[in-house]
Design a protein that fits this description.
Blueprint (H helix, E strand, L loop, with lengths): L24 E10 L2 E11 L4 E5 L6 H8 L7 E6 L2 E2 L7 H5 L2 E4 L11 H11 L5 H14 L15 H13 L5 E5 L7 H16 L3 E5 L3 H7 L2 E6 L2 E6 L1 H6 L4 H12 L4
Parallel strand pairs: 3-8, 3-9, 6-7, 7-8
Antiparallel strand pairs: 1-2, 1-4, 4-5, 9-10
């Protein structure tokens, strides 16, 4: 365990909720287009409680758009999405209420530059969850300490390394006590030496039982952490299975060609 994650216990927010036995997410017949460009073409996917599913595929295959649809950042054109049995794509759904249950972390960090780390982390709990400032700050400080960031709580984002900023972004999402965490290429904006500390944090979250849907280009990481891997191609889930199945014995020729290029590039 690295210094960045030393002291993390298994009582992370949301890690043990949603244990009623039903799936965490059910996606049925999901279609999404931007103008004439069809980005998602009939996505069907079930994500179970405490499961980690990694989405892999070439850039433009639809991974990020799928995550944005699950978080209701993009309206869908057809199909439906259920989170813990509730259809979140139903008409007149309270979008803000749903988003309080689903954390999302982007590759670009998206921290507020004019706010300290502590203010970035406590803004959501104070504004959206109506937690008193003292409680929000105490909870945030405890989370930051778990992730090796307590000494940075008064700093502003421009004082942090890229890896530290991404860890703060993850803490900010966890501070909302989500049932589900979406991670969208969270290492893509990082220098190679900073990637390991962020991936270690995600491994700790998986060990704590957090339900996660992860879009990633880090094939070795997906192989190590995922319960299942989905290979997206041209807006469809072309193949899914365990990491051993996808990386060891893919059925589809398109999957084999994609992974061969990854191997040739030295990324697996």
């Amino acid at each position: 365990m690295s210094a960045a994650t030393a002291g993390i216990d298994r009582s992370l927010p949301g890690a043990h909720r949603g244990s009623g036995g039903g799936p965490a997410i059910v996606i049925e017949g999901l279609y999404k287009s931007f103008g004439k460009l069809e980005v998602l073409r009939g996505i069907d996917l079930v994500l179970h409680q405490h499961e980690v599913v990694c989405l892999i595929g070439a850039s433009g295959s639809g991974k990020s758009t799928l995550l944005r649809c699950v978080n209701l950042l993009e309206p869908i054109d057809a199909g439906r999405i259920l989170v813990e049995g509730e259809e979140i794509t139903a008409p007149k759904i309270d979008v803000n209420r749903i988003r309080r249950r689903i954390g999302i972390v982007f590759q670009a960090f998206n921290l507020f530059p004019h706010m300290s780390v502590l203010d970035n982390v406590t803004l959501g709990p104070r504004k959206a969850l109506r937690r008193p400032r003292a409680q929000a700050e105490a909870d945030a400080t405890a989370l930051l300490e778990r992730f090796g960031l307590a000494d940075k709580r008064r700093d502003y984002p421009d004082r942090l390394s890229g890896g530290q900023q991404q860890r703060v972004a993850i803490v900010r999402a966890l501070a909302m006590s989500p049932d589900l965490l979406l991670l969208d290429e969270v290492t893509s904006a990082l220098d190679p030496e900073l990637i390991a500390e962020v991936l270690e944090v995600i491994r700790e979250l998986a060990g704590a039982g957090m339900t996660m849907l992860i879009a990633t280009h880090e094939m070795g990481f997906a192989r190590d952490i995922a319960n299942r891997v989905c290979f997206l191609d041209a807006g469809r889930i072309l193949e899914e299975g365990t990491p051993a199945e996808i990386f060891g014995a893919p059925r589809e020729e398109r999957t084999r060609r994609f992974l061969q290029r990854i191997v040739e590039a030295g990324r697996l």
